[in-house]
C-alpha cells in the first residue's frame, strides 16, 4: 500500500514550486531586517511575505522612516526627530521586530520538517500540468537567474517559473523607478549635472531600491540552486527505486 507521505518535501502547483529546505536562520532573520517580508519569501511563505512587504512600504511612508534615516546619516538629528510620526513609527517598530523573530523561528522549525520529510524517502513530484500553466522541475543556471534580477528585479523569479512573485516584484520596481525618478536622475548624472541629479531624486522611494534589488538577486539565485538540488534528488530517488533489484549500483 502506497500511503501518502505525512510530510511532503515539495508541492508543484500552477504558481510554481514550494518546498522545504534547510535554511540558515540567521541569514533569514537578516533578510527580514533588510526588508520585512524578504525572509518569509526565502521560506516559501508567499502570502504572508507579500502582506509584510506591503505593510513595510505603507507604514514606512506614513511614519517617514526613510526620510528620518537620511537626515540621521547627514547628522541632522533634530530634523530627523521632528519629521517622524510617533504613532506610525511605534507600530512600524513592533511589526519590524516581530517579523525578524518570526522568520527566525520558522526557519528553525522548517529545518526539522525538512529532515523528517527526507527520512520518509517518498516519491518526489516533478511535473504538474494544469489548464493555466505547466510547471516542472528542471536544472537552470543560477548565474543567469541572478543576472536577470540584476537588470530588472522579478525577471529572475520569472526565470524560475514563480510568475506571481515575478510580476509583483516588477510592478513595484516600476513604482519605485517612477516615484524616485531614479532613471531621470541617473541620466542627468551621466550628463555631468550632479546638483540637478540630486535635486530631482526622491530619497524616500530611492531608499527602498537597493534592498529590493539585492533581495531579488539573492532570492532568485538561491531558489535556482535549491530547485537544482531537488531536480537531482528526484532523479536519484526515482532511479534508486526503479532499479532497486538491479545488480548494477548507480548510487552507493
TrEMBL record:
Keywords: Membrane, Transmembrane, Transmembrane helix. The chain crosses the membrane at residues 163-179, 205-223. This is Uncharacterized protein. It comes from the Bacteria.
